[in-house]
Amino acid sequence: MTQQETLTARSIKDDLDHGGITNLVNSAQRGIHTMPDGFVDTYEQLNTLVADNSDRFGKLMDWKAEKAASELTLKLYQATGGGNADRVIIDHLRPALKQYLDQFRAHLDKAGQYADHTDAGALLSQPDDVRRAWLDLTDSYADYSALRASWLVCRKRNANDYAHTGTIDPDGLTSPLAEVANIPDIVSDWKLAYAGRKPWPWSATAHHVRLRWLIENGAELWLPTGYEQDQAWAKYNPGRRVAA
């Protein structure tokens, strides 16, 4: 959004949605992960300011409101831009991933032999704690997906390359190496599988089945910064160079 553009409730919302700020706030409010102190409060202050100072067409009614809205928006972007985006990954998203994986493993233990089932009917005769654990496993995709989405926002907020991925990895932010640091060590045909030319080794595409296989086969699940993904890619592709 440029300074010349008229600020409206819609333009501010669209800008925050496009920049991923709304995504980060929503996940923080849902308890998926934390955010830096004051970040969510600043977002809510901005929303209140806009709601209290917009006319019936959604346009901010005076220059003071526009100035305050611009300052609050800038504050949100500064908190999640450049090196600060990496700090969010390191200080807020990674602890959330560790907590998520700890809970996932606990659910695996409780579900036992039923942990990788995809049919709820097979659990009808099982104890309540087994059925509950299985439901927790199958429902856990939403939280994992939200966590990965927040990571994606942060990576894009600190990417200055043409592809807007911030890494030399040619597969960018969707690379298997961006999710599993040691994927080449545990899946020999990972590149062919990623390209769709060979099957992945897990027995079903369901999230809890896939994640169980990864965990039980020594996967190093992570949320890397651009530099860390570069290091992982270089480790498995020594001597190669990718044009910027």
Structure description:
This protein has 11 helices and no strands. It has 244 residues and is mainly alpha-helical. Helix 2 packs antiparallel against helix 7 (141-157) and helix 5 (83-111) packs antiparallel against helix 6. The protein is globular and about 65 Å long.
Q: pLDDT under 50 segments (min length 5)?
A: none
What is the rounded distance between the termini? 27 Å
The coarse overall form would be: globular
Topology, number of strands: 0
Structural class: mainly alpha
Largest sheet: none
Total helices: the number is 11
Average of the residue pLDDT scores? 91
**Roughly how much helix do the residues carry, as a percent range?**
55-70%
Features:
11 helices; 57% helix; mainly alpha
Give a short summary of the structure.
The protein contains eleven helices and no strands.
Helices and strands in order, then pairings?
Layout: H1 9-18, H2 21-29, H3 39-52, H4 63-79, H5 83-111, H6 128-139, H7 141-157, H8 183-186, H9 190-194, H10 207-216, H11 226-236
